[in-house]
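Technical appendix A lists one of the benchmark inputs used to test multi-chain prediction within the project. The record comprises two sequence entries:
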Amino acid sequence: MIKIKILSVGKTREKWLETAIAEFEKRLTGQVEFECKWFKNDKRLAEEADKEPSVICLDPEGKEFDSPGFADFIEGQGARMTFVIGGAEGLPQALRRSGPQLSLSKMTFTHQLSRLVLIEQIYRAYTLIKGIPYHK
Amino acid sequence: MIKIKILSVGKTREKWLETAIAEFEKRLTGQVEFECKWFKNDKRLAEEADKEPSVICLDPEGKEFDSPGFADFIEGQGARMTFVIGGAEGLPQALRRSGPQLSLSKMTFTHQLSRLVLIEQIYRAYTLIKGIPYHK
């Protein structure tokens, strides 16, 4: 079982987002176990991210993949992955040092929308890796 | 009042997506009027898009903007805009001929997720154009 942690700032208040994310998590049951952690500010996020052996930071200036490229990237990461999504001010400078930086889009997304797009792309990646049809 | 049409294939069945889109539409009340139209297949979509004076087609191979660049793009379009989002097989070839092509990301999104990201970015663009704070 792959374990994916997502660290971000600010809890989700939007019910629609919780529903959407739960739907993608459900589709990945048995293959990927998600753990989402929220921190109250960028400083706390950076402290927690520093405890991880390696992190993948989401940043609009990071590397952009197409979906098959992202599937290859995911497959190359092994069985443990930690993604870090910054708050309204983006990622703390201190965090930008380690590991690959990933961009979902050149556009700026809220951290809520980033989390949804990230989980949807992780689900899409596994449909490509496992050769299963994308559930619509 | 700006009028924005979004033409796409396949009606949204996900309640979370309807809620999310309604939230962004509400925030733009008085500034932007949205009209979303769904067609049952790419052929019908192409026929309807052909009736529009000009269309902006969403395509992963289109031009990518950052959010301020997208705000400039939106501002330059005048008071009527029609966005076209293709179905699972992407845009019909016939439609790729006219007008600018816009990419939200190098990644492939479902047409549902594309619609949400597009409307969120339109809302974000108007906060930049009007100098109003982004509601979180």
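The mean pLDDT of chain A is 88. The interface with chain B takes residues 14-17, 19-20, 23, 60, 64-67, 69-70, 88, 104-110, 113, 116-117, 120-121, 124, 134, 136 of chain A (CB under 8 Å). Comparable benchmark entries are summarised in Table A2.
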